Amino acid sequence: MRDCTSLVLFGLTLALGMSACGSPRRTALGDIEVHAVRIDSTNIGVIHRRGQAVLVDVGLEGAWEKFLPELEALKVDVDDVDRMIITHGHGDHAGDIEAVQDAGIDVWLHADDEAAVAEGQNSDTEVIGLEAAVLDLFVTGPFPPSTPKLFAEDFVIPDLKVAVHHVGGHTAGSVVVLVDDKVAFVGDLLRGGNLGGLVAPEVPLVHYFHVDQDVSHQALRDLLDEHKDVHTIWPAHGGPFTRDQVDTWLTGIGF
Ligand SMILES: [Zn+2]
Question: Fewer Cβ within 10 Å of end Cβ, the chain: N or C?
Fold first, then answer.
């Protein structure tokens, strides 16, 4: 199974590396810059200003080493990274936490996903659709266990205008990371396109797995209703989306 998983992930990586990338992956918010760097099939968020940076998600096992040259290309010093926020405790987001901690960076996860990451095993979820059922056979295997720092309350990082909101839905501990109330990293509350964003990355779709998909979709509706200035929405796979794209899609599925 492990060989099979590696093969599938390798194929996805190759394919994603070749896929088109039409939308900007950088947003300037005053002196704060927001980037999304795709490593394997996962978007890693980089939020930074001079001398200070926060990251969102790390990706699969081995992702950190692949990500470091990308961070350097953005002219962000790894020593300036204060912390990493994990959107939720799945292996393609939390699979390389120890490598990040070894670099001296605090990694934070919502406490409701503690067990999955401590055990290195994705929690049980609904499997939605045929593609999900096939993927489930390959990509939900064990991942390296880790012990991130845990939070239970929403919090802000004032210097970088970052706000972290617990929403649940995809997993019990899923969070949304908002930057200056304008750019949102929403993890796996939805996905962009098929096969991890390989096909049609800018088409919003129901994610393959949810503990409770209605909670995920309502969280996205609440995000739009309560944060009227949000204009760019990054799923962890594929994307990005405009506010209008997510609005139209949510309405189409009854939210
Ligand atoms: Zn997930």
Answer: N
